[in-house]
Amino acid sequence: MNSIPTTALGLAGQGLPVLPLRADKRPFGLCRVCEDLTCGGRPNMRIPGPCVCPWPCHGWAAATTDPAIVGSPQWAAAWRQARAIGYHPGGAGVTVVDLDNQTAIDWARSTLPSTTTVVTTRGEHWIYQGTVRSVNAVREGVDIKSLMSYARWLGPGTGPMTDVPDAVHELVKVKPATRPMSRAVTVPAPAGGEKCPHRSPVYLERGIAMAEQRISTATSGVHTAVYRTFLAVLSAHGRCGCLTEAHIGRLFTAAQARGESARHCTDAWANASTALGM
């Protein structure tokens, strides 16, 4: 009997966003449109973020902690064929330093602080608390998997988990994230210096109110709903200078009222900005 679906449900119940993986470690397409990973978010097009389907159906964007989705009929066929469980490290608030060979492991032992360690088929995963940008091949045999990425679940590992060290932040060339609520939003001004059509208080207020409602009424997959709402708001208002700290604060407040942490709000906002090239 395939124990992978049962294990996946247990992990989701513990707060780990999971998804089924093929024998070659690729994620399944979980709807008919994406059976062969052919939709708008397919990895070979290097397009970040969730696909354009009615609900996220593959890759890191499909990872979820919702048992109704993990155990749904739509996912059943994939779980029957799955040979591994994937998870979204960023969604779990962690970073995986994937060490693919002994040279990489030796480097980590001499450079990075010890943390939770998981043995892999070729090397080790060093798992740290906190999130960073995901980057492959930051050095020979070393990948960083966190935001907008997935990793294989290979067990809980050994040793206490420590915070993401400065050395990892340096590797990905990203400083620790700060909450957008605490700073002004910098976006390009409208081309030609024209008056922004969104500065109408009624138009902008309606958009923010609708975004708050979308987050507040999400019936499942709140983390994904928050990301998609942030993406929609930034798509409509992010390039014209409309958004203020107060607007962003309202969105964060709505998300945190649904159980999202401040860190996850920051990550979702950063991911949406990256997806739109901001």
Task: Name some characteristics of this structure.
278 residues, alpha+beta, 5-stranded antiparallel sheet, 13% strand, globular
Overall description:
The chain is of the alpha+beta class and 278 residues long. Helix content is 35%, strand content 13%. The protein contains 9 helices and 8 strands. The chain has helices at residues 4-13, 67-70, 73-81, 102-111, 166-171, 201-216, 222-237, 245-257, 262-275; strands at 18-21, 84-87, 94-99, 116-119, 124-129, 135-139, 142-145, 151-152. The strands form 2 sheets. Strands 4-5-3-7-6 form a 5-stranded antiparallel β-sheet. The chain has a 3-stranded antiparallel β-sheet with strand order 1-2-8. Helix 7 (222-237) crosses helix 9. The longest helix has 16 residues, at 201-216. The N and C termini lie far apart (47 Å). Mean pLDDT is 78; it is low at 37-51 and 174-194.
> Which stretches are low in confidence, meaning pLDDT under 50 for 5 or more residues running?
37-51, 174-194
Count of helical stretches = 9
Mean pLDDT: 78
Please state the CA-atom Rg, rounded to the nearest Å.
19 Å
Largest sheet: 5 strands, antiparallel
Oligomeric state of shown chains: single chain
Q: Which percent range describes the beta-strand content?
A: 5-15%
Q: How much helicity do the residues have?
A: 25-40%
Structure in a nutshell:
By secondary structure, this protein is of the alpha+beta class. Helices cover 35% and strands 13% of the residues.
